[in-house]
Amino acid sequence: MREPAGYRETIEGLEISYPGQLMFTVAEAAKICGCSKDTIRRRVPMQPSIHRINRHELARFLCGRS
Fold first, then answer.
1. What is the radius of gyration, based on Cα positions, of the chain?
2. What distance in Å separates the CA atoms of residue 63 and residue 66, rounded to the nearest whole number?
3. Angle separating helix axes 26-33 and 55-64, nearest 10 degrees
4. Which one-letter DSSP state was computed for residue 54?
5. pTM score, two decimals?
6. How far is CA 1 from CA 4, 37, 50, in A?
7. pLDDT of residue 51
C-alpha cells in the first residue's frame, strides 16, 4: 500500500504538535481536522475496544482530504 502524498510530513507535524501522543480521542481528532466528531467516527478507523484513533490513521485521513 502506497503512502498518501504528504503522509510523512503530516506524521512529523503531529509528533511536533502532540509529542509522544500516539492515540487521539474522537473529540481531539475532530478538533485537529476541523470537522465534526460524526465525520471522524464515519471516516477514520479507530481501535474498537478503546474508541481511540492512532496517529497513523489520523495522518492518512488528513492526507486524503482535499
1. 11
2. 8
3. 30
4. E
5. 0.85
6. 9, 27, 26
7. 86
What the block records as the C-alpha cell of 27 is 473529540
Domain housing 37: 7-64
In a domain, 1, yes or no: no
The pLDDT of 32-41, averaged and rounded, is 94
Asked if the structure places residue 2 within a domain, the reply is no
pLDDT at residue 66 is higher than 70: no
What pLDDT, on the 0 to 100 scale, is given for residue 46?
84
- The pLDDT, as a whole number, for residue 65 is 66
| 17-21: long-range contacts, CB 8 A cutoff, minimum separation 24 | 18/55, 21/55
| Residue 32 · residue 24 · CB < 8 Å | yes
Q: Count of domains in the chain?
A: 1
